[in-house]
Q: What sequence folds into this?
DNA sequence: TTATAAATAAACCATTTGGTCAATTTACGA
DNA sequence: TCGTAAATTGACCAAATGGTTTATTTATAA
């Protein structure tokens, strides 16, 4: 049993360690030795499971993305109406698991590397594509196509900006403040309605419940 | 005349070279040797005018900020009404001098460094404070205080997000697309009006004229 | 023209980087 | 119990990093 198994386990361990290091020390401060230290292993062994530093960091970022993705899927499964789907996507990005200073640091580090490291570009592309495809459906059912496209872009931009700020502010950015901003952005094309308000409340609630569940499990 | 003068000249030269290097190679790829090469000088001499790499890069970013700041001042001087002032601020951030892939790269690099390098934090703080103070005045004269504060935050966030995307997209992000997004954000609290439309058109025009002027000069 | 101080750069240094390799430990199958 | 293949690591390497020191050029003031 210990043949292929241990390989997968180690790869996951080291990817997670790399991600933690990325959060703490940024791209600059994330060296192989530091990741190895974080994982409690030798540098040589880390490099035994990943051919290069770039491969390791790519894995780290895919890992982080997978976490976010899983959360999105769960929330979206609970969403029944278009409005609920929209808020599911937004709440995913504001969830206490993700919307944190250290997590934002890691992502900004990724962004800084994108222009120079091709494998990072692919990851970014995937992330954007997923967010867009999750938003565009429900938006189309509430708006004419052109406005739906515009709102999808504007919301994505806003989420990016919020994460950036979350990473930069010393004290981070409160979840509530971020939520208010996104709601304001929605107002641009979508008037307040009872449907919307109810969907918002429900998805916030679902997100809260999910957060408390994963807290208990850890 | 060549006493204190040359010192100032060299410092400016090297800061500009550092900024150029930052745009091309990111924070990771910006080493003292590379900056020296870009400046056509020796590494030792660069370090003669800046005590450390960190000091050099801080100067580079202050230099970049000064460029943006100068443009903002010129545009704001032309702005007479609240709406014109708002669009002056926004157009500054979309100006062809600034809203470019390589420039965005440099700023993202700065952002990635902020959590770990204290002098970068100060620069970021200054930039945010200036933008906010430029926006909050005209917004207050069009909106109740609470909404003005919110819109100031939302606009800042949107600009951040747009720059991020501009830096990440292979092909960059077109000025027009970015402008559409910002206009949509404005719609959230401020209805379309003749005043607004006129102000928008005028500031776009002023910005265009400015750009063509600085093109001729170079 | 010469003395002097600033500007510049070549050589050097300690440290760290990503990465290799050969040796050793571990653990499972027969 | 033993042999073998995988897991793990310490030692090592060349390259690059930020930074220092020392020597040399340059230019100015007297």
A:
């Amino acid at each position: 049993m210990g043949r292929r198994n241990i390989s997968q386990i180690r790869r996951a361990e080291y990817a997670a360690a790399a991600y933690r290091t990325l959060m703490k020390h940024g791209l600059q401060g994330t060296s192989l030795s530091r990741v190895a230290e974080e994982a409690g292993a030798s540098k040589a062994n880390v490099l035994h499971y990943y051919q290069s530093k770039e491969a390791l960091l790519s894995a780290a970022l895919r890992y982080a993305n997978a976490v976010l993705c899983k959360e999105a899927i769960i929330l979206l499964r609970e969403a029944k109406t278009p409005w609920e789907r929209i808020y599911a996507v937004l709440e995913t990005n504001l969830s206490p698991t993700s919307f944190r200073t250290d997590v934002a640091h890691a992502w900004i580090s990724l962004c800084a590397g994108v222009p120079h490291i091709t494998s990072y570009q692919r990851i970014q592309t995937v992330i954007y594509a997923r967010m867009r495809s999750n938003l565009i459906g429900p938006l189309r059912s509430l708006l004419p196509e052109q406005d739906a496209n515009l709102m999808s872009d504007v919301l994505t931009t806003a989420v990016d900006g919020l994460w950036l700020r979350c990473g930069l502010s010393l004290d981070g950015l409160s979840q509530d403040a971020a939520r208010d901003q996104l709601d304001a952005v929605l107002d641009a094309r979508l008037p307040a309605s009872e449907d919307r308000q109810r969907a918002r409340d429900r998805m916030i609630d679902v997100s809260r419940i999910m957060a408390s569940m994963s807290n208990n499990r850890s």
User: Anything to note?
Assistant: Residues 2-3, 6-7, 10, 41-45, 48 of chain B lie near DNA strand C (CB under 10 Å from a C1').
